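Renewal narrative, Specific Aim 1. Our central claim is that a sequence can be written position by position from structural information alone. The example that follows is taken directly from our test logs and has not been curated for this report. It begins with the structure tokens describing the chain, in the order in which they were read.
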């Protein structure tokens, strides 16, 4: 049975019921990867704090680069192992830095990941979380140039993938944070996390992902299980290192594409939450005429097919149905043949 390469997107910071927390979309990703044989997804789906998995059928691609792949600008090349470097925000306190370095050493010793070296930024990154954003997680970096400079230093030394650890403000709204921890709100730091990784992807064009450095907070006995993986360690770095360990190389498309494992033209479908159809990757797939599988996954957006009227969009109730659709497409089964009522074959009239 041939594979059916599929993109799986759950946008960061929009409060999705599945995928809006700490790696809670990973089971859905594993299901879709099994159905498709080849799934391309991003760190927001795969990273679960200290928990994650390597899966030979899943390509781990940062969101900005994933959009470029969907647009047909880059291809992906499978690798056995990336040589990972870590950028640490210079404002991280010594004890928290040591905890992260010990986690990196553990990933080398226990998982065999190639974490080669790290660098401290010359200046603090200056992370700012936007609190007046109408429910969407947003933020900015006051010193983006120092982040790029640190990444360039790692690449000069032969690093092929970059993990970033930024210091996040200790004065983050505790009510908002606890609302998220209890499964009632949007991850307050997710939006600015995306900004950080997008910068590295855009300017340095290497696989990357971000893990926030946060000071420990008090126990919350009303914790939602979807947020629990963020409570079991000092750092979220392990999931990033696991994902980057064999993330694909990003290959600019040229006339000679012999080194590419997965070309954008191979993609058949994209799976995305209902209401979240306005992202660059989704719109690029629509422009290219691909199948859009829209899954009911409650979030704060409301851009659906009533706005786009796209004929190749299929709405389903859950990721089980999405996996079934992908299997049918993979087997070359006419989707209409499974639905009821079943229409008769139509005659074409020369007079019309």
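The sequence written for that structure reads:
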């Amino acid at each position: 049975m041939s594979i059916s390469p599929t993109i799986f997107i759950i946008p960061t910071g929009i409060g999705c019921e599945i995928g809006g927390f700490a790696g809670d979309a990973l089971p859905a990703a594993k299901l879709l990867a099994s159905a498709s044989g080849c799934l391309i997804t991003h760190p927001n789906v795969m990273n679960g704090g200290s928990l994650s998995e390597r899966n030979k059928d899943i390509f781990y691609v940062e969101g900005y680069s994933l959009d470029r792949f969907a647009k047909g600008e880059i291809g992906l090349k499978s690798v056995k192992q990336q040589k990972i470097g870590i950028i640490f925000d210079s404002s991280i306190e010594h004890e928290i830095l040591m905890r992260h370095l010990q986690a990196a050493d553990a990933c080398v010793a226990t998982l065999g990941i190639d974490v080669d070296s790290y660098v401290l930024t010359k200046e603090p990154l200056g992370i700012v979380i936007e609190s007046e954003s109408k429910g969407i997680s947003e933020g900015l970096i006051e010193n983006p140039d120092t982040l790029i400079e640190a990444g360039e230093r790692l690449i000069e030394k032969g690093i092929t993938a970059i993990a970033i650890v930024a210091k996040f403000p200790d004065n983050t709204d505790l009510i908002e944070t606890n609302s998220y921890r209890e499964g009632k709100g949007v991850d307050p730091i997710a939006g600015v996390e995306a900004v950080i990784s997008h910068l590295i992807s855009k300017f340095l064009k290497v696989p990357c992902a971000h893990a926030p450095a946060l000071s420990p907070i008090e126990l919350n006995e009303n914790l939602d299980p979807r947020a629990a993986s963020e409570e079991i360690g000092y750092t979220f770095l392990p999931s990033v290192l696991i994902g980057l360990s064999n993330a694909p190389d990003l290959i600019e498309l040229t006339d000679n594409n012999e080194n590419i494992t997965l070309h954008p033209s191979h993609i058949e479908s994209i799976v995305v939450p209902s209401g979240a159809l306005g992202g660059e990757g989704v719109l690029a797939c629509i422009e290219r005429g691909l199948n859009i599988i829209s899954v009911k996954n409650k979030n704060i957006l409301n851009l659906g097919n009533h706005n786009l009227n796209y004929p190749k969009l299929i709405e389903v109730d859950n990721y089980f149905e999405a996996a079934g659709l992908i299997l049918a497409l993979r087997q070359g089964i006419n989707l209409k043949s499974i639905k009821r009522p079943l229409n008769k074959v139509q005659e074409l009239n020369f007079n019309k």
